[in-house]
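Researcher: Batch entry, complex prediction.
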Amino acid sequence: MLELVNIGKQFDQKVVLENIDLKINTGEIVSLLGPSGSGKSTLLNIILGLTKENQGKVIFNNTDLSNISMKERGFNIVFQDYALFPHLNAYENIVYGLRNRKEPISRKEVNEYIDFLELKPHLKKKIGELSGGQKQRVALARTLITKPKLLLLDEPLSALDGVIKESIKERIKLIAKEFKLTTIIVTHDPEEALTISDKILIINEGNISQFGTPFEIINRPSNDFVKEFILKQLHIKRQNIYSLFGEAYA
Amino acid sequence: MIYTVILILFAAFLLLPLIMLLVRSFVTDQGVGISNYISSLSDETLMGAIGNSIKVSSVTAVFTTILAFTLAYAVNCTRIFKPLKSAIKMGIIVPMLIPTITYGFAIMYTFGNQGLITKLFGQNLFEIYGFNGLLIGYVIYTLPAAFLLINNSFTYINKKFIIVSKLMGDGTLRSFLNTIIRPLLGSLGGAFILSFILSFTDFGIPASVGGTYQVVAMELYQLMLGSIPDFNIGAVVAVLMLFPAVIGVFLLNYLEKFNFHYDKFNDTELVPNKFRDVSFGAISIIILLGMFSVFAVMFIAPFVQGYPYDLTFTLNHVMDVFQSGDLITVYKNSLIVAVITAVFGTIVAYGSAIINARTPIKGKQVVDVFSMITNTVPGMVLGLSYLLLFNGSSLKGTFIIIILCNIVHYFTTPYLMAKNALTKMNPVWETSGELLGDNWLKTIYRVILPNSLSTVIEIFSYFFINAMVTISGIIFLVTAQTTMVASKINELQHFAKFNEIFVLSVLIFLTNLLMKTVCEYFQKNLAINKKGEGNKMFKPIGIIKKVILGMGLVILAGCSAQGGDEVVIYTNGDDEATSAIEDALDSAGYEGEYILKSLGTSELGGRLVAEGGQIEADLVTMSSYFLESSQEQHSMFEDLTFETNALEEYPSYYTPVLANTGSIFVNTEILKEKGLEAPEKIGDLAKPEYEGLVSIPDIANSSTGWLMVQAIISEYGEEEGKQVLQNLIENVGPHLESSGSGPISKVQAGEVAAGFGLRHQAIAAKESGSPIDFVDPLEGNFSLTESVAVVKKDDEKSKLAMEMAEVIIKDARGALLPYYPVDLYEGETLDEKHKPAHPKNFGKPLNVDLLKQHQEFFSSAK
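Model: Structure tokens for the complex:
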């Protein structure tokens, strides 16, 4: 279980996060949802260990991670732009971290990840030759192969279009289920958060606005921000779809 | 740790030398004060030189900016034939591959009286010595840099704006101003300032084609290495030289705000316009041909018997260079320095950029400050500050100091290239690498380096090429054991050895071209590899490993090349003298045990006075009066331990090697062409019909000039003599040479009809088949002795040097007498045909005091 206790962060004089308390159970998918500048990426970086919190604690399976470096935490992340290494091909990117592992991973296991993410036909391609969805899957494979204790995804769907987006969403859900992997996703898209997550943490101006299941968010919004910013977007989208296709498509 | 190393490097080799320079500029005989500045600022010659530099650099900057813009416009905004665009882009870099000092000689052989272009047009287009020659040289020198700057900015111009402007109804001029000139304003200003700074601080071009047009770089050189060096005033000039460069760099930063930054743009078809394409195509071809025609001579002269008179093809000159151990060693020195500079320069520039662009280290911006300072400090100023700081240290006279100077001098551009490339890279790669188990260094090696390899290769090539061609930075730092090709060219010009100069230049050009081609091949492969187009994988890290291994071998070879056990001989002797000395020493079994370095009289004199017993040389052959004054100041020579049997009595620490005799010489073909009678005396050269057709050496820099002044004073007396000299100097115009060999090279090249210089050089030229004849002037053939002396060093080398001095006196005289026909030792007999017709001696002892009096006499006649 991941526990955030009273996390606070300031950059220079500006407060970015305040009093963040949160508990995430093993195997859950949790989205951090909020507008740009709300502090969600900072929170993700604090969990990862990339950014040091000014106050509070990050506790994972009863261990305080405050003084544990990013590398030693055993978490991993897929960045928004995937951060794949362009001088290596897809396969070389996937196995990049293997030489640094203490416990070796068998070729069979590597192939299982590759098959699971349907990357076999693309292994020899250079990064520049891959589509957005393929890049996303290579980045996922490269991260999963290191067997992280916690998977962090920074805006994983923002660079993808329609159908690919849905397929990756399904893939992420499957990963969490298959590997029993706690997954934290940063997104600014309410629809994305509500359709992929077990729970959603809505952040506004560095504070928790609401934390709950998609059902609770939709049916019991805790404040005006959730109503106005989060739910209104969904209403507008729904209206657009109605006007195009009629009620039958709702 | 990398950060600390870089901080120490720049503190020790940039800040400290500059502080030393600044301090030195305030040191006077009476202590510390501003009197050096006061006397410098009220020195008309110096202020004139600064004014000249500003004038010629400004005009250069205007021409260069216009030409560079025209070429860049042709490449980016016209639909001219694509191969022509490629030719412009490739051709423009040619000057960057050649030392600037070569430009001057190429200009002389192209636009001079007997030059390629002059022959084509049938007449002299203009006077090339001085302003015009400098202008042509500087424009060629600065054009590539200005073009690259403007051309790069052109690629960021959104060409859709041109179409929008047309659609909005703009006329040609308004459209041009709004869519081309306005977005490029910053870059055009940048190109202007860059050209100005480069011209203002260059040494190579004025050293070869400056004539009597004094510019600040030459002024600094003469102050530091002239006949009477003044380090403190030199430091003042260096500080003054910094000012325009500092202002220029600030202006460049200011101009940055005029640049347009477009985030997204794509290629757009240009509007067809035949007139535009034809005119810009034609102009581009003319510019390129003009540039190439200047360099053409460099590729022709070494392959003909005697340019411009005998154009029969020969490989003799090239073979001579390859057979000359001295020249090949110099080439090897340049290669070693260039390779080591490139390796360590790349590490320093790339490491600094990594620190700035890819780490959160506090205070990392200090690297930007270093970069700005190195951008501001001209090479000559940096070299001079090293000379002042490290003169007494063990770094003096090593390759290391030259390499460090090169790295610091050329730091800015590679650093900015690397910083630019590294900043553009994905900022989370290090985090990704760390999450995948790499430490920071490993990520740099496995991810960052391979992805910036193209930039690394470009940086390597930049350092290599610049280290091969530079002269400004190293001219104060080279010694006999560390001579570079560019500084060797500076030496060779004293002997008018243009064939060797051009062969060496071609060698540098081909080496740089090879390096450029290899680097571009690797870069191209990297690009293909990134796109995934190559069948085979291009393994960049493997290549880096191999390159580092190869470089290691070269570095090892370089270190072993330093040796240092040889006796170093400094000589101001001419070619014939050095050959005779070398032959004598080699025959006596000393081959490989000595290094002989030729220097101009004033330069060697300057070093003797400035460095005293700390001079690198163990043995010196030099004008006797200079040896006397050096001994008086420093007591730096040992008493000779062998019997000389000289006809006259000389001080115990030197004995003459030869006596130089002055004479008039003429180019018989030019005399015929101009319908002139051959002169009989120096006075004849002062007659009006010789206006613009005479060349003489300047007594301020050349002892040969003194022979002429002695003849004039002893024949005409001071009063009448001054009038003769005045008329003569008027006739001479721009052909007043700082080197004693200058006049003979001018006469040989057909630039002038007659000159005054060393008699033996005229004999040699005549015997080589050139249309040269010599005339012993009725005023008299005056002579000056050059003597050998052993520097007190109290080591094994001094003993060996003493043995060599004896060999030179006993064995070389036979070969020297035909060229320098003055009997100095018992038993010497002279060949009648080589005997000067009117040998004379000046009535007073020839010492530095008399030289100064005669210099003042000469100066008053100017």
